[in-house]
Amino acid sequence: MDLGLEAAGVGQTIWQVEKDPYARRVLKKHWPDVARFDDVRSVGIANLERAHIIQGGFPCTETSVSGQVVRNQAGLDGEHSSLWWEMLRVCRELLPEFIVVENPPGLITNPAGIGQVLGGLSDLGYHARYDTLSSSACGAAHARFRVFIIAQRIIPDLNGERLPKRERVEANWAYAATPGSAGWFSEPNVGRVASGIPNRVDRMRCLGNAITPAVAYQVGLALRKMVENAASLDTA
């Protein structure tokens, strides 16, 4: 997600929160100068730099469609997916201008799902819109549907110093995968069963938790337009 949003020109990553040690090493490789934290429950206004945009995907353990096929999912009431409330707490403390949330489409069908997410955002003073987007829509050969929520704060912040001065949106547009571009594997070229092969299982897990960058880029374009519209209203 970080890669796609940066490519769309909405800003640069200033901190990341990731529990998995292997995933943190991957993030460190690509964002060596970015602050990283290992537990969303231990971060907030005391140790996070304020940002204009906060984006994240909370655990889908109890919201995934595949899980709903075989059992009743607990949604945001579940042990893992309930970490959404920690993400919401961070947003409440930092009050960014925009919030981007990602999850599988099971979030929409779960009774303890998207309604609670939208309600929580609304309580903080955000107007949110959501839609589903697949990797295949951006040129991949696999579907991989995901729900993306973009929320914009519509209640003015009474404390004008909560956020740094808005910086100019840089025009660093980047190439996004489109139909007819380089071919894709139907799934990433790593084995499902890879016992004994160093980093193979870890890599598969990271790919499963990640977002196709070309998809995140399209979300970033939509977000960029909203940022520019907000900036034009500020200067009108």
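^ that was protein a. below is b, sequence first then the tokens
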Amino acid sequence: MSNSLEAQGVIHSIGQTTEYGSNGFIKREFVIKLTGEHENADYPNYVMFELIKDKCAIMDTYQPQMPIKVLFNLQGRLWQPDGKPEKCFNALQAWKVENLSAPQQQPQSAPSFDSFDDDSIPF
């Protein structure tokens, strides 16, 4: 397995979950327009990711135009059909999607001892 990578962007489109073959293999594709400080708005980058098996349901709660962060693995396979040149196929296999428009939970800090007065201490 390759190292995990991440990308952020705005959802452009979300495909339907599709079954391939007779063994129950399912896959779902979605496309984001990359955003961030290194992206040039004049030349936008659109990138397709895939979800497989039980991960297909991840996109059920998302809609186009939502800003997200995608955590994914880069996958690649070689294939050589009979009598033809070898081909290499690449896939960006997403395994987690985070909604960037949802408010982030901030950990609550413990109260400082300066905020207690002597009357609120039970002993």
